ABC transporter substrate-binding protein
Amino acid sequence: MKKWVKSSFLLVLACFSVILLAACSDKEELQDVKVGEVTRSIFYAPQYVAITQGFFEEEGLNVELSTIAGGDKTMTALLSDGIDIALVGSETSIYVSAQGANDPIKNFAQLTQTDGTFLVSREKIDNFTWDMLKGSTFLGQRKGGMPQMAGEFVLKKHGINPQEDLELIQNIDFANISTAFASGTGDYVQLFEPTASIFEKEGIGHIIASFGEESGHVPYTVFMAKDSYIKENDEVIEKFTRAIHKAQDFVYEKSAEEVAEAIAPFFEDTDIELIATVVERYRSQESYAKDPILDEEEWNNLQDIMDEAGELPKRMDYDELVNTSFAEKVSK
């Protein structure tokens, strides 16, 4: 009897060891991919969905996400192999290529397709028109960055010369813009979410217009990598892009509340209801791309906006810096 008990125990132990080894083996098979995002934002909801819902793991990938403040720092990390993939504005790939990079940066999967900022006024305005900005003090974004270029593009679209028709402030660091407005600087400010909604909730300001709706579709934030990395890791890029596409479907198919719950771990200090509000606002204006394909019309629109702002070093051919082969494959 004792021998039978001992044998049974050994059998159970052996089975447990096999299961444990299999689990460890599965984990070891996941390929590490280092991703650097330019900032932490609800604007990037599909990326966080792909992580929390296990879409990357389903593709055999273990994504190590880090936040690297600033497009220049993010690109430096990519160029120096500190990260494998960068999530940043497409304009950065143009800046780098214009400097004569030996290993071109290729945009391979689009995450957002509109500007993500909103016009916030200090006073409540019921019937806003853009010409109300004339003669005001406007707290804009950093010069040369996509938010500022999109902002100026929209102002010019409405017949406002940013350098002559208003007092344009753009020498404040991105992280301090909201604080400056809350402290009394400016009549209007260009803000990302959730800050815009937080200010509205606290009575600091009022959302009166969307720069995303006004500027049209552009490859605002895109996953990109060095051409050499893409060629050497084509299967990884395809799997990564497929996981992102699954997350894009999730964001549009689920309720705003479900999306908010999915990404909440990345925004522990933000109220879940506020996250849902922001998700719905971005989703309603289709800021989240519905597929990862960066099309040529969007690319040209981006360069038109940069050119209008006087920040386009030179025009770049779509095929030179964009690789849609993976996005097209997973979108079929």
Observations:
- Confidence is low (pLDDT under 50) at residues 1-26.
- The radius of gyration is 23 Å.
- The domain at 31-114+218-331 is CATH 3.40.190.10 (D-Maltodextrin-Binding Protein; domain 2).
